[in-house]
Amino acid sequence: MRRVVITGMGMVGPLGMGVEHSWKRLIAGESGAARVSRIDVSDIASQIACEIPRGDGSNGTFNPDQWMDPKDQRKVDEFIVYGLAAAGEALRDANWAPESHEDQTRTGVLVGSGIGGIGGIYDASVTLLEKGPRRISPFFIPGRIINLASGYISIAHGLKGPNHSVATACSTGAHAIGDAGRLIMLGDADVMVAGGAESPINRLSLAGFCACRALSTGFNETPEKASRPYDRDRDGFVMGEGAGIVVLEALEHALARGAKIYGELVGYGLSGDAYHITSPAEDGDGAFRCMTAALKRAGVSAEDVDYVNAHGTSTPLGDEIELRAVERLLGSRRNSVAMSATKSATGHLLGAAGAIEAIFSVLAIRDGIVPPTLNLDHPSVETSIDLVPHTAKKRKVDIALSNSFGFGGTNASLVFRRYEA
Amino acid sequence: MSDIAARVNKIVIEHLGVDADKVIESANFIDDLGADSLDTVELVMAFEEEFSVEIPDDAAETIRTVGDAVAFISKKSA
Fold first, then answer.
1. Which of A104, A168, A352, A381 has the most CB atoms in a 10 Å sphere around its CB?
2. pLDDT score at A130
């Protein structure tokens, strides 16, 4: 099968607009968490979130008008705008703007979302109740459904190859990148724009995740302390929003056009827990099988892994189960591996999480630096794995593993390797 | 310009994001103002809301220009 490399990356999220800006803040140990600012959360148990910093587009702020015409923005949910922004940055970064029929038909899009336009579904439900069916906008459906991020991106950039989407909760971003890589490996496309987008900071989402007892509720007055994976005082995840998108490309295609190569997507593994709708299986076997499958596909052994970007959401159950599964995977090698949970800084971007974390994993390889796990003051368990508490560390990373696990017991792992001819 | 025409023009400008000088009586929503079929559905909804009139689907199909909209609404509100 064909080799697949990453040639472009784009991101908008709680640390700002842009991959380099977000990465710099992540490495500096900054948090994107704060009290929710743009909706009323006074009656909701979790009153904090990692919101995108908005502004005029300077200094890493997000200005949606730079990525989508304002008159079109009101037709769609925010996850689509975020997707367009991240895709726009990624394609520009890749220096790929297909114009010929051949180039356009060989470039596809596979961007998913965990939930899609739930905020707009809520608003339209209120309209239906109060004003009746004739007041539902013709843009209601096409502006909320999950695959319309892929649709809008393809229309904006003239990408006529495979147009696909994924909805696997918090594994969406990783599944999207893994599946897109396979479409290239199997020859269905030469270039794929892949990742995830999510806009879950609205009353209905927050209320729903609170009802699942998934969100942090004990840090409303100290939001930056709330996301604390592996720490004994963790009490749930912090909602985040944004999009992460990569440009994946067949190696020979990238070489032929002289593209910059960030790294190689070498492994992708999938598994199911078959255990519970929201809780991870206690034995961590689903996570273990998923990581094992990804390493097998990559043709590397656990001894080769330098860095693990954990799913690590800061929920009481999940963090330790994943940690035990990684220990089981690494065996005696666990003493020399770094594993961090970047959700400690970004919060949990649900369907976009796996995509932004894939980007962070690739940047760890590029820069030889592993991002920190913030707020890890008192680990709840003993481990010889370096969880990179508080501050980033310099270390050579040739192979990085990125985990994503979602509601429904759906697991995905990606393996990235430093590119070598 | 009548009050109705001014309010119709304002809605068209806002919904289609077009310049005011293009919104003339003979302007066709699709051919001249860049609307697609979904935009025209939304425009009709906005007219209904603004003028508190009901525009049935078969009547909506006959409203193709700014002038059509003004004429229909003027007749309905008379």
1. A352
2. 97
Mode of pairing for the β-strands spanning A393-394 and A263-272: unpaired
CB A176 within 8 A of CB A195: yes
What value does the mean pLDDT take over residues A198-225? 97
DSSP state of B43: H
| Entry pTM | 0.96
The amino acid that residue A33 corresponds to is A
DSSP string, A274-297: -S-SSSPPTT-HHHHHHHHHHHHH
Number of Cβ atoms within 10 Å of the Cβ of A130: 8
Q: Is the pLDDT of residue A131 over 90?
A: yes
Question: What phi and psi values does residue A349 have, to the nearest 5 degrees?
Answer: -90, 20
CB contacts, 8 Å: A70 with chain B? 17
Question: What is the spatial distance between Cα A387 and Cα A368, in angstroms, rounded to a whole number?
Answer: 16
The residues, any chain, with a CB within 8 Å of residue A58's CB and separated by 6 or more, are: none
CA distance A231 to A389: 10
Query: Two tokens at A382?
Result: 């003993």
Q: Could you count the other beta carbons within 10 Å of the beta carbon of residue B52?
A: 8
Distance from the Cα of A89 to chain B's closest Cα (Å) equals 25
User: How many alpha carbons lie under 13 Å from residue A140 in its C-beta half-sphere?
Assistant: 17
**What are the tens digits of pLDDT across the range A25-46?**
999 999 999 999 999 999 999 9
Which residue of chain A comes nearest to B40, CA vs CA?
A: A138
Give the pLDDT confidence score for residue A277 in this predicted structure: 95
Do the chains contact at A134 and B15, CB–CB below 8 Å?
A: no
Rg over alpha carbons for chain B, rounded to the nearest Å, is 11
Interface predicted TM-score (ipTM): 0.89
CA–CA dist A344, A366 (Å, integer): 22
The minimum CA-CA distance between B25 and chain A, rounded to whole Å, is 22
Between B15, B39, B45, which is nearest A135 by CB? B45
Residue A115's φ and ψ, nearest 5 degrees, are: -125, -25
Question: How many Cβ contacts (< 8 angstroms) between chains A and B?
Answer: 19
Note whether A142 contacts B: Cβ–Cβ < 8 A.
yes
Phi-psi region of A341 (alpha: psi -120 to 50; beta: other; left: phi over 0): beta
| Residue A119 pLDDT | 97
Q: Quote the Cα angle for B4-B9-B11, to 5°.
A: 100
HEC string of B10-28? HHHHHHHCCCHHHCCCCCE
